[in-house]
Amino acid sequence: MEIKSHIAILPSPGMGHLIPLLELAKLLALHHDFGVTCIIPILGSPSKAMIGVLEALPTSVDHVFLPPVCLEDDLLGAEPGIQISLTITRSFPSLRDVLKSLQATSPLDAFILDTSASDALEVAKELNISPYIFFSSNATVLSLLLQLSKLDETFSCEYKDMPEPLRLPGCIPIHGRDLIHSIQDRKSEWYRLFLRHTKRLHSVKGIIVNTFRDLEERVIKALEDEKEAGYPPLYPIGPIIQTGSRTSNEVDGSKCLTWLDNQPGGSVLYVSFGSAGSLSNDQLNELALGLEQSGEKFLWVVRSPNNGPANAAYLSNQSHELDPLAFLPEGFVERTKGQGLVVPSWAPQVQVLSHGSTGGFLTHCGWNSTLESIMNGTPLIAWPLFGEQRMNAVFLAEDLKVALRPKENEKGVVVREEIAQVIKGLMVGEDGKNARNRMKDLKIAAEKALYPEGSSTRALSELPFKRDFKPRRF
Ligand code: UDP
């Protein structure tokens, strides 16, 4: 009898990390016939969106919830990275039990962990299971993370105060203030923890990255050249994007698609800040009025404004959220009835982006959203909020030139006139036309990477953890 490879996968809490790892799980189970079990750590109770993607998993992918972790009240406001780390470490006893029981059925050939769950590498070592990291962002960010300890030793100032932009091998120069949010306060506890996460990246058997060669040729090559310096092998197997989930709210989901059905081709700007991004009250107001002033059609996923950091909702349960539409300027919804549609909190993004009426995307530049846009050839307005989004915005606007970038005023607010102008620029202007053409080229390159002979399919077939592997992705 043929022995199937048996793999355990550990995502970290947060939709942006869960979605691509579940897609990887599906790919390995459905197309490569591996036995795959996703082990799901949870903080508090799972959100509706999370339940939606897990319920949509095919029966060939098993999933098991670890007992929910509850954090003390004073930790609930902590940096999401700290909360994630605590969720993982406090789940160690149950994680150990699940891995041991899986091993008892059939030995595990690999344990694939999300980068933010890297604390659990300790458990993999204890149980002697080969560890791999799934990096849900791009090779440019990975390059920064792999070099962070060196940068930490070299520079003593805050990165935002570095006199020169950072020149990572193969990447365009990036100013310190645009580097990943987690490293912007070197005195913080989170920076220390984050540095520890990045050091662990060097100890794994391989890093699976959600990117493709033609998108980041130079930086991938530069990372591969560092193999002798002890960098783990790299497997660029993307783009892996969401291929289907039940939305957390079917009514709003189908409302979006029906509304799009009635709009002219390529006429609608989709506006969304990912699974968690939120704006301040003032900024939400300016965005509403800027959308209205632009006169362009829009479909806007509105989230309640924040009183603090833009990622405050990252680990929160959206079902507890106040009605976000109540925060819009008075009369906005009525005045823009023929022009736009607003939906609270969540939309079926992949279906929206692949709809023929969608012609542009105002995005926070989360990496999943970026890849979903590339797969649909949709040009962007880059509006980064947190995480690695500023790095992604620089890459998209200055290197790939597929995004326009609105400017903030001296108070850090993007005002309505600027918003209206950049929207017109994307939807009907010359800059938008150029960005759209370049996005179409990237879409073709992404599709080629996924062909049976494409670079990403090849990288997937090179993963050494399988026992009897015949690539048959499509
Ligand atoms: N998403 C969605 N509907 C929404 C908001 C987000 O389906 O209303 C999905 C989106 O398609 C993507 C993921 O959630 O797959 C967001 O991931 P991303 O990396 O873009 O951003 P994050 O949420 O991690 O900030």
Question: Can you walk me through this structure?
Answer:
The chain is an alpha/beta fold and 474 residues long. The protein is built from 18 helices and 13 strands. It has helices at residues 15-31, 48-55, 80-90, 92-105, 121-126, 139-146, 148-154, 189-200, 217-225, 250-261, 281-294, 332-335, 349-354, 367-376, 389-399, 416-428, 430-449, 455-461, and strands at residues 6-10, 35-40, 61-65, 110-114, 131-135, 206-209, 234-236, 268-272, 297-302, 340-344, 358-363, 380-382, 403-404. It has a seven-stranded parallel beta sheet with strand order 3-2-1-4-5-6-7, sandwiched between helices. A six-stranded parallel beta sheet has the order 10-9-8-11-12-13, sandwiched between helices. Helix 1 (15-31) runs parallel beside helix 2, helix 14 packs across helix 17 (430-449) and helix 16 crosses helix 17 (430-449). The two termini are 25 Å apart. Residues 469-474 have low confidence and may be disordered. Uridine-5'-diphosphate binds at residues 15-16, 19, 242, 272, 274-277, 301, 346-347, 349-350, 366-369, 372.
